[in-house]
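Sequence only, no structure available. Ideas?
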Amino acid sequence: MDYEVHNKVRKIIYNLIKEQLVGIESSLLPQHISLKQSFYVSEITEVEKYFNEFVVGLSSFEVTFKAIDLINMKNEEYESQILWLEIQENKELREIHNSLNSELMNRLQIPNSGFDGDSFQFHSTLTLGYNQYKELLEIKNELTENFNEMSFQVKEIAMFYSVDEHRPGRFITHKILPLMKK
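Reply:
I predicted one. Tokens follow.
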């Protein structure tokens, strides 16, 4: 995303960390739009090769942050939350998501993960929570009062890599490439 939107979003996150005492985990990566659920591979070489080829077919497109949303996920042990910027779905985002899902499966036998598929929600994470639904709902409501839509032109794509299969969610920025198709 362009630096202006990135900086506006990071100011929101900074205030959340400073005033609401939320964790910093989600801010360790560059602000980004999630295009696919994360997945584990033991060797990154083939995925990186695919990524290099995939980006050649992508051209720049517009994205709009349209709202702030809070997702609550429950399992037997705990609840986890994601406070995020909801993205207005468009043709380009859906095509990228579907292509990643089908091509990674066909070429590298990497199956869809978790929320991948038709119901995948495009988003940009603000913060994560664990058993904090009530607190994060209050934060969401406060942020929503002053929220204005933000649009920008996507000009690059990033590949993140988890270095630890036993502790998911710990990622590094592996590669950032420009969208190359004119």
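The first helix runs from residue 3 to 20.
Hope that gets you unstuck.
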